[in-house]
Write a structure and sequence with these properties.
The complex is a heterodimer of chains A (344) and B (323).
Chain A: H1 15-19, E1 21-24, E2 29-35, E3 38-43, E4 47-52, E5 58-61, E6 67-73, E7 76-81, E8 85-90, E9 95-100, E10 108-112, E11 115-120, E12 123-127, E13 135-138, E14 145-148, E15 154-168, E16 174-190, E17 196-201, E18 206-210, E19 215-219, E20 229-232, E21 237-240, E22 245-250, E23 262-265, E24 272-277, E25 283-288, E26 293-297, E27 300-308, E28 315-320, E29 326-331, E30 335-340
Antiparallel strand pairs in A: 1-30, 2-3, 3-4, 4-5, 6-7, 7-8, 8-9, 10-11, 11-12, 12-13, 14-15, 15-16, 16-17, 17-18, 18-19, 20-21, 21-22, 22-23, 24-25, 25-26, 26-27, 28-29, 29-30
Chain B: E1 7-14, H1 20-29, E2 36-41, E3 53-56, E4 60-62, E5 71-73, H2 74-83, E6 92-96, H3 104-112, H4 114-119, E7 120-130, H5 134-140, H6 142-150, E8 153-157, H7 164-177, E9 182-185, H8 204-209, E10 227-234, H9 240-254, E11 258-265, E12 272-279, E13 282-290, E14 299-306, H10 313-318
Parallel strand pairs in B: 1-6, 1-7, 2-3, 2-6, 7-8, 8-9
Antiparallel strand pairs in B: 4-5, 10-14, 11-12, 11-14, 12-13
Helix pairs in contact in B: 5-6
The chains are: A mainly beta (344), B alpha/beta (323).
């Protein structure tokens, strides 16, 4: 007996999946950034794929192992890997080694205005754009995350026991301030207006400092670790993963203290694992543990559309091009979607 | 469908010079057709060069969950999550701890971190012991004693350098601390890898299979802070509520001294066997199906730890028997 596959009901594809390009790479997508109207995505086998509309994507072999982190530096891509390499890669595919730590992993990278940083273990390395040799900034424990503020004047380094904020003084010497809170701090970010600093912790909680007076407070109630968060529409909201809803804390006015977050629910009761802002709008892309991705308006929970249906694998990267025309989605099994957002 | 495959993780402990590096080199060089990643510590006794070797700083973090002895290995959370992003799938991961390390934070990491627990599972704690020096190491260093207490498998290494009667003495010393562990006598850590890796020793099902190997006699010991073990058996069913109250309070207040617990419990009015195991205050428990028809129902409970004799364990356990 032969089976006619057409007899089986087809799972509905979203219109974005129908018109976009879907790939099954078979290797976890670990990170993605937008560079102009290009998206660069990093994979667990050390490859980078560069997507742009109207062209076939380009594949580069950059690292020997997992690409652990990625950042944008002007028109270039910065990557760090478990092969110990810190690389700068152009959109054309030229790969330049910035440094190489041997068997030590490059855990985090960041850049601002040509100044580059990476962390490996307990040390942050800072390359001033005019200098060849990096400056080492030492810490007592392994670094959980790195972030510049919007102006690139301050560098926040999260670690066990809090955050160290580095700043150059008038004589160009590095000075640090410590923001302490017991426990292990991972991802870190300044608010775009520079008033707040937020970390996600090993426990299911976010810690926030108001920088003008170092007042600190927790944002809690999560069912799992908050692995992804982002400020939305400048500093209007902080949208976070870690629950079956996307949790959006209000940061306008006097900040989130004493105010309730907006909780955006999704069908299927799956954990939200990835949050990406829709630039300049009070709207987010939320990726779930089953691979589905939704676009929601924060202040109107009924205004949610599905971008990608489930794949069975946790969403691990979402990036939108700077012209807001196209979006890239990737998950831990290597299923990717590259699609235009607007109907023709 | 969500991928529930969990990579087994073996924790390799052992006092300085016992032979951990010898074993690691065997794991990395032998033709076994398996892909093993090895996480080594910065104080490794000699360099091992291999793509699948990851350097780690042994960073012990306290968790803010109100549990005073809940410490985890922060570096391990980071490294295991990185290894799970690799293109090639690993058959097993081996974590080497430093010679002076307490194995508890490593084990607790698998109870506490969701991502680690979803994608990997603690397979077994393997302790390499130096047959020549173990007795004196246990006397002088509490770490050596803890490593024996936590072991699921103990490789009693360098037996070619020790007389037979002394091997018996060392074996008895190990048994007094840890009646559960499987002891494998080796020279140059020459045990088959299948007796060391992929044992599933932390699976609750395995507890049903392992019969503790208790020494008949002595609970006498020279120092008050010696690690010892105590076990209790009851043919009379237990009262579930009484047991939960007693045991919960016990772990909460004495969890720092109680290193490992295991048990199979027969509760009054319940058809299922209840199985549990714990590391300090953290515990994993589950009903494990009906009692087999050919086996008498009974409850067994084992503690490994310090100052056990001060905890009134016998009285506490007796009081849990149903009326």
């Amino acid at each position: 007996m032969t089976t006619d596959l057409n007899q089986f009901p087809q799972l509905d594809k979203t219109k974005f999946e129908q018109r976009g390009i879907q790939l099954e790479i078979g290797v976890p997508v670990t990170c993605a950034v937008s560079i102009g109207n290009y998206i660069a995505a990093g994979f667990g086998d050390g490859t980078i794929r560069i997507f742009s509309s109207g062209e076939k994507h380009k594949t580069l072999k950059a690292h020997k192992g997992v690409i652990l982190c990625m950042a944008k530096d002007g028109d270039n891509i910065l990557t760090g890997g478990d092969d110990g390499y810190f690389l700068k890669i152009s959109l054309k595919g030229e790969i330049n080694e910035i440094t190489n730590f041997g068997s030590r992993w490059v855990d985090h990278v960041a850049a601002h205005n040509g100044n580059l940083v990476c962390s490996s273990g307990k040390v942050v390395y800072y390359w001033d754009k005019n200098k060849k040799e990096p400056k080492s900034l030492n810490h007592d424990s392994t670094i959980g995350g790195l972030a510049f503020d919007a102006k690139g004047r301050r560098l926040a380094v999260s670690r066990y026991g809090g955050v160290t904020v580095w700043k150059k003084d008038y004589s160009n010497k590095w000075k640090s301030t410590k923001l302490d809170w017991k426990g292990s701090h991972n991802k870190v970010s300044f608010s775009p207006d520079g008033k707040y600093l937020v970390t996600s912790m090993q426990e299911n909680v976010l810690r926030c400092w108001r920088l003008k007076d170092k007042l600190d407070f927790a944002m809690s109630g999560y069912g799992s670790k908050v692995k992804s968060f982002a400020f939305i529409d400048d500093t209007s909201y902080l949208a976070t993963s870690g629950a079956i809803d996307a949790i959006c804390w209000p940061f306008d006015g006097e900040g989130p203290m004493g105010r309730k977050p907006i909780c955006l629910p999704y069908i299927g009761n799956k954990q939200v694992t990835f949050i990406e802002p829709f630039p300049d709008e009070k709207a987010i892309f939320a990726g779930l543990s089953d691979g589905s991705v939704f676009l929601s308006q924060i202040e109107n929970e009924n205004n949610t559309i599905i971008i990608r249906s489930f794949t069975g694998s946790e969403v691990s990267a979402i990036a939108m091009t700077d012209d807001k025309s196209s979006i890239f989605i990737g998950d831990m099994s290597g299923n990717t979607l590259w699609t235009s957002i607007w109907d023709q | 469908m969500e991928n529930k495959h969990q990579v087994p993780v073996t924790v390799l402990t052992g006092f300085l010079g016992a032979g951990k590096t010898t074993l690691l080199n065997r794991i990395l060089t032998e033709q076994h057709g398996q892909k093993y990643a090895v996480i080594v510590n910065e104080f490794g006794e000699q360099g091992i060069d291999n793509d699948l070797v990851v350097d780690a700083d042994e960073e012990v973090f306290e968790m803010n969950n109100g549990c005073i002895c809940c410490t985890v290995r922060g570096d391990l959370i980071r490294i295991l999550s990185g290894l799970m992003k690799r293109a090639d799938k690993l058959d097993a991961i081996i974590v080497e701890t430093t010679g002076l390390a307490d194995p508890a934070p490593v084990a607790q990491t698998f109870f506490v971190d969701q991502d680690v627990a979803n994608k990997t599972k603690l397979d077994a704690i393997v302790t390499v012991a130096d047959a020549v020096h173990l007795s004196s190491q246990i006397e002088d260093h509490h770490e050596a004693e803890e490593q024996i207490a936590f072991g699921d498998v103990i490789l009693l290494n360098k037996i070619d350098l020790v007389k037979d009667e002394n091997i018996d003495v060392v074996t008895k010393r190990i048994r007094k601390i840890n009646p559960f562990a499987k002891i494998i006598k080796t020279t140059k850590c020459g045990a088959p890898l299948k007796e060391i890796l992929n044992l599933d020793a932390f699976s609750l099902k395995r507890i049903l299979e392992v019969e503790p190997d208790f020494l008949e006699s002595d609970h006498d010991h020279e120092h008050d802070d010696d690690v010892t073990s105590l076990s209790f058996v009851s043919d009379k069913p237990l009262d579930m509520e009484k047991f939960q109250n007693w045991f919960g309070k016990l772990l909460q207040t004495k969890g720092q001294d109680i290193m490992r617990t295991k048990g199979i419990l027969d509760f009054k009015g319940e058809n299922d066997r209840y199985v549990f195991q714990g590391v300090h205050m953290l515990m994993d428990a589950s009903p494990m199906g009906k009692w087999p028809d050919d086996k008498e129902r009974s409850s067994r409970l084992v503690f490994i730890g310090r100052n056990l004799e001060t905890m009134n364990l016998k009285e506490g356990f007796e009081a849990c028997k149903s009326e």
